[in-house]
Design a protein that fits this description.
3-stranded antiparallel beta sheet
Length: 73
């Protein structure tokens, strides 16, 4: 039986929502192994005075497999 754990992480990008998602996932993959899926929890951003989006932020729930314990011999 596999066990999964979910953590919530946030990050951003000045390029796009998709780039913000990729950035958060790439950074998470540095320290979290066996990521299986993600869910976008929140999307937000900032706009300049003309109404043009300038920054994009996302909050993701990232789910990964909990590794089996190492046997002690």
């Amino acid at each position: 039986m596999s066990i999964e754990k979910t953590v919530r992480l946030s990050g951003g990008s000045s390029d796009s929502i998709e780039d913000a998602i990729r950035t958060v996932l790439a950074r998470a993959a540095v320290t979290i192994r066996d990521i299986t899926r993600f869910q976008v929890v929140q999307v937000s951003g900032q706009v300049d005075p003309a109404g043009v989006p300038t920054d994009f932020a996302v909050t993701l729930d990232i789910t990964f497999q909990v590794r089996e314990s190492l046997s002690r011999e």
